[in-house]
Amino acid sequence: MQGQSQQQAYDRGITIFSPDGRLYQVEYAREAVKRGTASVGIRAEDGVVLAADKRARSPLMEPESIEKLHKADDHVGVASAGHVADARQLIDFARRQAQVNRLRYGEPVGIETLTKNITDHIQQYTQVGGARPFGVALIVGGIENGEPRLFETDPSGTPYEWQALSIGSDRSDLRDYLETEYEEGVSTDEAVGLALDTLAQSNDGELSPDGVGVATITVDDPEYAERPVDEIESILDERDLLATDEDEADDENADEE
């Protein structure tokens, strides 16, 4: 009984390390991220690609209301996985930081600087009593001094820089696929195709144009831009990833079950 009470103390107290040096609430937050639908980020030679699985839980839900891709600044995009409400709070924080940097220094915020500001904010919630960690991971991508940069934030408050990564459900499988298929020097258009191929790995090899979001930021035109549905549909058709009406009906029936 005494051992169980000690275990519960480590579970409930965010500021208490377990004897083996773990913060259980942070690890539980990572588990919350794994329950979210997948998002993918790829750094290309001439830009950054963000893609997200945003399938609706019901055919009655408006696809536009599912928020997985966000514009943090003109040259910065963010994809999320995990608790959407937590993601919204961090996106608002990132936008304020980007605006403050423009007002204070008269220039766009650096991608690495912005990511570390976000992770510093996240880290505070791992060592303050009466709070909980953010149950979300973010992919922060954009153009900094003419170079594409791609970062990940973790519920522990640690930033990582990547060439290509996935967050959310099936992360390990999608990362293995990216490690096999990703090549340095790919173009932005090629990276868009690779991102959709990667997301399809966790969707039986097929995707619906309404159920996926794609955003790009290029070196030549460093402006965050989301690809329209008809363009995504065309790319999915070209790559033989387009879900049929029968497959979409099966997905809806599975959601109802």
Automatic annotation (TrEMBL):
InterPro entries in the cross-refs: Ntn_hydrolases_N (IPR029055), Proteasome_alpha (IPR050115), Proteasome_alpha-type (IPR023332), Proteasome_asu_arc (IPR019982), Proteasome_asu_N (IPR000426), Proteasome_sua/b (IPR001353)
Q: Which GO terms describe its biological process?
A: proteasomal protein catabolic process; ubiquitin-dependent protein catabolic process
List localization entries.
Cytoplasm
Stretches for region Disordered: 224-257
Molecular function GO terms recorded? threonine-type endopeptidase activity
* Record keywords, A-Z: Cytoplasm, Hydrolase, Proteasome
| Residue spans of biased composition, Acidic residues class | 243-257
Enumerate composition-biased segments (Basic and acidic residues). 224-242
* PROSITE patterns named among the record's database cross-references: PROTEASOME_ALPHA_1, PROTEASOME_ALPHA_2
Q: Which residues form the Proteasome alpha-type subunits domain?
A: 10-32
- Predominant subcellular localization, coarse grouping: cytoplasm
Summarize what activates or inhibits it: The formation of the proteasomal ATPase PAN-20S proteasome complex, via the docking of the C-termini of PAN into the intersubunit pockets in the alpha-rings, triggers opening of the gate for substrate entry. Interconversion between the open-gate and close-gate conformations leads to a dynamic regulation of the 20S proteasome proteolysis activity.
Matching PANTHER family, A to Z?
PROTEASOME SUBUNIT ALPHA/BETA
Give the family per the record. Answer: Belongs to the peptidase T1A family.
As for what it does, the entry says: Component of the proteasome core, a large protease complex with broad specificity involved in protein degradation.
NCBIfam families for this protein = arc_protsome_A (TIGR03633), PRK03996.1 (NF003075)
Query: Can you name this protein?
Result: Proteasome subunit alpha
Species source reads Halorubrum coriense DSM 10284
